Amino acid sequence: MKHILNPPRLLCLAMACGSFSFSEPACAQLVLSGNENKLDLSTGDPRIIPNAPPDTLTMLDFSSFPPAVTHVTNIPNSVIGPPSNIAIHPNGRMALVASSIKIASPTATNWVPDNRIYILDLSHRPPRVVSEIQAELQPSGMSFTSDGRKVLVANRGTGTISVFAVDGFELKPIQSVKVCEPSENVSDVAVSPDGNLALASVKVGGYVAVLRFDGREFVVSKRKTSVSGQPYRLLITPDGELGLVAGLGFGKGVDVDELSIIDLRAREPRTIDHVPLGTVPESIELNPDGRLLAAVVMDGSSLPPGDPLRTDKAHLIILERKGKTFVRRQRLDFPPVPSGVVFTGDGRYLVVQCHLERELYIYAVHGSHVRDTGQRIPVPGMPSSLRAGPKP
Prior knowledge:
four-stranded antiparallel sheet; 31 strands; globular; five-stranded antiparallel sheet; Methylamine Dehydrogenase, Chain H
């Protein structure tokens, strides 16, 4: 069931936290990486790997540095969809992992949508699956409300946002909100700090949907918010003022794609700025106070071998917030095909997934810049989804 590289620290329950309860945060500083084995992206398009080993999950514990590493096998996850198909409860004890797709049979030549979400207990060492639930088709991006009482799930296969009530380690479905047709690809969802507004990225449709909570349920606005390219990974700043979404464009060239910035304090949310990022931004993530934004861009590294526009490097972009926009501070070379990027809960470190090299790169954060620590964490699979827990 497990393979442990370094002995992880035990939860400091009695000494630092007092008696442990579900509502109290765990003391560990955790990052989770979902690692897929069934699909290969080295040829530029997803290709099924015959007789692939099970997918895995890697937990990094940043209670010390370098982080302690634990690998758990047989946790299905996928690179199909934004790297936010992992979600960690605000108390740091529970995590969700969505199985977005599956291979229907050993002889299958294509994947099909899955509908499972796994519920993990992170206080157990190694993390363990306590249950799984049947969701709607192709659950992808997921976000908890800040109070931890609800979680929203974007379902690509049905064009819906599922809303679940959280009760201990149980999820109870309370609403399914129709956002778009399945062909339009609702990919990610983000919730405002007060829980009264959510944004959903409709990738192929090319817009962001706004959902408002009326006290009983979420209701979709009729207005479609225009953004750059095909919106994918989606965030809301910790102060609730801005929505941020990275647009992918068509992903087949070297055209520069953009970050769209949505003013959520306007009478009606509207896009107010676009910031160039690079070609095919796979993921974006804010640091805990919302001052820094990290983005990973393919910049031609994900194109098929032999394509004249293919490159041998991608990039990590660091931006800093200035009022209601972001300005670029750094552009660092990165190996081909990055996937997820995330700041640790205390904001001291940045973790970036290198999909093809099957490694996690660790950067230290200094002001508005990051520095490569040289730490590389090998993982048993191609790292595809990534999420950090809260600050202890």
